[in-house]
Structures are given as C-alpha cells and as structure tokens.
Amino acid sequence: MNSTNISTFLKTISKADTDALRARLTGEVILPGDVAYDGARITSVLNFDHRPAVIVRPRTTSDVAESVRFARANGLPLAIKSGGHSIAGHSVNDDGLVIDLAQFKQVTIDPARRTARVQPAVTSGELAGPAHAYGLALTTGDAASVGIGGLTLGGGIGFMVRKHGLTIDNLISVELVTAEGEVIRASKDQHSELFWALRGGGGNFGVVTEFEFQLAPVGQVYGGALILPATVENVRKYVDYATAAPDELTTITNIMLAPPAPFIPEERIGETVMMILAVYTGDMEEGARVMQPLRDIAEPIADLVGPMPYPVIYDFTEPSTHPHFNHIRSMFSHGISDAAIERVLELMGRATSPMSMAQLRPLGGAFGRVPAEETAFAHRDKDFFFAALGLWADPEDDRVNRAAHQAWTEELWAAVKSERDGVYVNFVANEGRARIGEAYPADTYARLAWVKGQYDLENVFAGNQNVRPLARQEEKAA
Ligand SMILES: Cc1cc2nc3c(=O)[nH]c(=O)nc-3n(C[C@H](O)[C@H](O)[C@H](O)COP(=O)(O)OP(=O)(O)OC[C@H]3O[C@@H](n4cnc5c(N)ncnc54)[C@H](O)[C@@H]3O)c2cc1C
C-alpha cells in the first residue's frame, strides 16, 4: 500500500482512540487545538504549513513502537521529525500522525572506545560540544541546528568529509523501530542489508531511535572563514585547489553578497564574495601552510582563519540555524565550468534576497574512497556538490516576493544543471520521482526497493523521498 492508498482508507480518529493512545504512552499526545500544537507542527523550514491529526512526542522506544502501531491501526500517514530541517517538508504531514522525536536528545560518549550513542533529535551543534570535551568529533553537517536523524540517514556531508567521509561512514549500528512496531538493531553483522540501506536510504525503513558512531580524534583545528572577492578567476583557482588539496582540508564555500557583519569593511557590504569556510585537521603549522594557496588567490576582504576548537566552526554558520523560507536546487558533478561560474556570479549580482547564495563543496578524499556499493549513498565518484540556495526569512517578504525568489533560484539552477551527475537525497526538495532516480542510480534503487519490501512492504514509512517496496511476488518473478 503506498501513501495514496493509505489516505484513501483514512479513518476519523475519535477522542476515545487518542485517549487510549495517551494512556499507553509515557510521552505526550498533542492534538489540534492544544496549546502546544502550533509550536509542534512548525519546522525550521517555514515553507510548509502542515496540519497533522495527531502529534506524538514519545519519551521511550516503546512509545515510538506504540505510535507506529497506532498510525497503522488507524490508517494514518506517518511523518518522522528529528531536527525538523527537511527541505521537502517531510517532517510534518497533513491529517496524519507525526512522531516528533524532540525528547530523543541523549548523547553518551565512550572516550575509551571513541564511540558515541546519539539519539536522533540531537543536533550537530549539540554533539560537537560534548565530543570536543574528550578531544573527539564526528563529521556531520555545516549548520549546528540540523538533526542527526535526517542528516545521517541521507548521508551527512560535513566539515571533515574529505578526511573522515560521510557521517554514515562512521556509523557502527542503529536501533530501529520497524513498521511492525518491533525494536531491532542493525549493523554490519545484524540485519546487514538493512544497515546498508539505512546508510543513505533516508527514513524509508523505520524509526531510528539511536545511532552509534565511531568518533575521530579531533580537538583543535586550523579553520574559520576566509572572505575573498568573487571573480571567475578567483572561483576557478579556489575550486581547483580545494578539490586537489590534502584530505585534511575540507572547505564549504558560499558565493554570496557580503553581509553587514563586523568583520566586513562597510564599503564592501553587498559585494559578491566567496566565503570559504575551512577546516584543516592535523598539525596547526601544516594547516597554515595548506591554507596559504587560498589566501594567495586575492587580497582577503576578511581572514578569520586560525587555530580554534572544532565546534567554533559552527559560529560562522549561525545565521543558517534560524527558521527561514527556502527554494533549493542542487547537484553532484565532476567540477564546474568557467561558463557556469560566470553566470552564477552574474546572477548573484542581482539576487532578489540578500540571504541567497550559491554553495560549492569540493569532495573527494575519504568520501571518494568508499566503494559505491558499500552504502546506499552511491555517488562516491563525484568530486563536487553545488546548491542554488534561495533563502529569505521575513514572512512579509515571503508573501510579496516568494515567486521572485523562486524564479531567481531557478535561473541560478538553469545556469549549472546541465553539468549535473546525480543529486544528494538530503538536498532534494519536492521535485518529483525523476530526482529520486538521480539520487539513487538504478542498481542502488533496486536494492533499496528489495530491502524496503523485506522491512516495510506496506510502505508505512512513505513520508520521505520514497523508495517503493519491491513486492515479494515481483521478487519471485524477477
Ligand atoms: C540549514 C540547513 C543546512 C543543511 N546543511 C547540511 C549539511 O551541511 N550537510 C548535509 O548533509 N545536509 C545538510 N542539510 C540537509 C539535511 O541533512 C536534511 O534536511 C536532513 O533531512 C535534516 O535532518 P533533520 O533531522 O533536521 O530533519 P527532519 O525534518 O526531522 O527529518 C527529515 C527526514 O528524515 C527522516 N528521518 C529523520 N529522523 C528520522 C528517524 N529518527 N528515523 C527515521 N527517519 C528519520 C524522515 O524521513 C524525515 O522526514 C541542511 C539542511 C538545512 C535546512
């Protein structure tokens, strides 16, 4: 049964039903009209205004299992919310049941084994601090507020991707509540095909209630923000160097309008710049040496790069943690042409929102050395990620200018999209089935569909970039 079928069979849930659910849970049940309802249905991405029939805030894994069984018994579509940053609006649904994991916030670090048990609503920022206390870190995403739940299940491209791979490359095991409401653990040795699928296949296979990660010994890093004038020549030099640099250096670069920040000279505010966010893990002097070619590209507008504790990198992306509206298009590629860079710079010069940006992430290194078939994230041969990020935050601006911001982003996307080769599932918006096909090459998709058939044949977990289950009779016929 797919999500369309489920909604066909929607039953009206009664107060007696929800009272019975409440009696079985230690967590909260929030209904339309409750004081907590509006706060619980709004997410970090403001584009969406979904109104679920029931929001459950479980406290325990058995609450999660109970909620899954209740949704099934009542024909309610399910949505799973960890950090609430879904670009496609999948964290919350209309007329269904949302499992809001807001209470799943525990981090337990084992310094001797250098491992962490992390519950799914823990954010990148909330993990970085406690891990740093032991001189350890996990490579996650670029914004402190993003939930480990959604980020990990899609892959996790972060500030140490070239040195330590994706977040999933550091995943040891997960605890998961299945569509049947069973609690299982998946790892390389237990439910190994499921473990393969969970590493890139998104929320298709169950509700993850705990991740176990291997941490890396990372304390001080040589990092921060280097802001350079954005010209075609400068961007070209940056891309070429950052893609070939030692694995220890990962950069994420935003081509943007210089913000009114204390470190930007007043006369340069609004100029199109490259904000290179850099993290070098290793010896500090060597870090300075490896950074030097970036500093040599042009006279920096601001140079805030130096030795710092790893979690401080999140200070530089703090603006992106605030709730905002967005229109996002993105791709993997094998680089970016000068013609595309030229067009991107021209479009940035007439951006409709001062928050909007083009984001460049050179990949390679450890990310590229994992065999494509080892996880459900197959794009290991891609050495570049690009995102056209239309961003705005003011509701009045949204009311008046949403269409203009979207059109500008589409123009930016049109400037680069012919160079694409795949897409990162966590950056796919509501773009239709073809884009899910770009996220998962045919072999990967077929294997995901098989695993989905084994663990969620009725597609209970359909509120996501959905992999349709391979029915068991199709499997026999194949
Ligand atoms: C500002 C911003 C910055 C970002 N930066 C990065 C980045 O640097 N690197 C990167 O890789 N990605 C990045 N992303 C994308 C991000 O990884 C995805 O949006 C991700 O899905 C968010 O996870 P979440 O838990 O916060 O979101 P949620 O909306 O809570 O979850 C998204 C989806 O993931 C699934 N899911 C979440 N938790 C669970 C669970 N416990 N069990 C089963 N399924 C679950 C569900 O399908 C859910 O709908 C960014 C997104 C934003 C908005």
Observed structural traits:
Vanillyl-alcohol Oxidase, Chain A, domain 3; Uridine Diphospho-n-acetylenolpyruvylglucosamine Reductase, domain 2; seven-stranded antiparallel β-sheet; alpha+beta; 3 domains; 478 residues; Uridine Diphospho-n-acetylenolpyruvylglucosamine Reductase, domain 3; binds flavin-adenine dinucleotide
Structural class: alpha+beta
* CATH architectural category of the largest domain: 3-Layer(aba) Sandwich
Number of domains: 3
Q: Calculate Rg over CA atoms.
A: 22 Å
> What small molecules are bound in this structure?
flavin-adenine dinucleotide
Rough outline: globular
Tell me what portion of residues adopts beta-strand conformation: 15-25%
CATH class of the largest domain: Alpha Beta
Portion in helices? 25-40%
User: What is the terminal-to-terminal distance?
Assistant: 20 Å
CATH fold assignment of the largest domain: Vanillyl-alcohol Oxidase, Chain A, domain 3
Number of helices: 16
Number of strands: 18
